[in-house]
Amino acid sequence: MFNVLTLSRMQFAITTIYHFLFVPLTLGLSILVALLQTQYYRTNDERYKKLTKYFGGLFLINFSMGVATGIVQEFQFGMNWSGYSKFVGDIFGAPLAIEALAAFFIESTFLGIWIFGWDKIPKKVHLASIWLVALSGCLSAFWIIVANAFMQEPTGYILRNGRAEMVDFFALIKNPQVWLQFPHTLFSAFVTGAMFMIGISAYNLLRKKDIDVFSKSMKLGVVFGLVSLFFVMGIGDAQGKYLVVHQPMKMAAAEALWESKDSAPLSLFAKIDEEKGENSFDLAVPNMLSFLSFGNFTGRVTGIHELQEQYQKQYGEGNYVPPVKISFWSFRTMVFGGSFMLLEMIVAAFLLFKKKLVKTNWFLKVLLFTIPLPYLCNSAGWMLTEIGRQPWVVYGLLKVDAGVSSSVSAGVVLTSLIGFAIVYGVLAVVDLYLIVKFIKKDVELSDTISKNQKGGIELWT
Asked: What is the pTM of this model?
């Protein structure tokens, strides 16, 4: 269990999942804050200004944590995964460099202008600064997806001297995986931001605090979340159909489909035995998997055992089956969670239309306690994306065991793994404390900027 490969995978999984808790909220909340400020600019309604600063403060806390945890990812590529970096660095490095220079620097620069520019620069310029923050954040996500899409479906490269070298940069951008992953990830982030805003608004409405103010943010969150959820579902369906053809093993594992079947059923719940390569129990909807995969009820879906035989002939001896249980339940967590949120938003929209949402306390409590749900769905989706690709780190080109560093000892990796877990645990407590403390403040207090300065950074109070 405690070999370098396993420990390195555990370390990367912990740091990546923890970092990705902050990324979707940063993307989604930045757009929502920009929309709130746009309403303030259009209407000169002070309620929108208060909401902009209130949710802007929460955005800044989350953004800071995202930056702090994201830096670690870059170091791990060279320290724990030097084999991977050597093999694919010529390709992987380009979009990451563009992300830093053309996206993150823009985002951080205009974020500074937005923080310190209140009532000091023209309203139109100040509004433009938060929109540039939001749009550059989306641009940053795009370049990260470009890099990841190459790992899912390599394009625009040649193999030379045991390395993958880029020959067509635009092939990376035109990779079909990019145009499925990016909008799906982006709209999932919008859902995260919307559910966060809805939950916080529900909390304040339940407290009977600033009802006329938080009813505005509730309305924005519900409309934004409902529209985003429809896009998530639609793009997710297209992505699933694409992966059935181009990454069939991932989708077969996600469905725990061991044997190839015509008119394949869609499994709702299964008791999976990975050692025997079968399901001892399977509750399924007849023909539905074929319909979701091909748009008809009679299509043939290739199973895990047949794909394993194909891959052994194509790539040589080895086990090409990803962890089926994790893939299966990650997929269902994402789908069932998304379906619940969609139902929730439909009910919220109905109550909003009837002008009853603000007064329906039991449903406001439901909205409050489902804030963690999009985080769970986001993590499950990325677990399926990455774990379902195993044993490949670059699909069809480089296996995970060939990407790990050979010069790092298990003891060193274990020590750093424990260290990261402790530090990230402390950061989680600090982050939660800061967010809860900020949420409990009255919106009037969050509308002011403290005169106290620490390290040149004004603290929101």
From this structure: 0.92
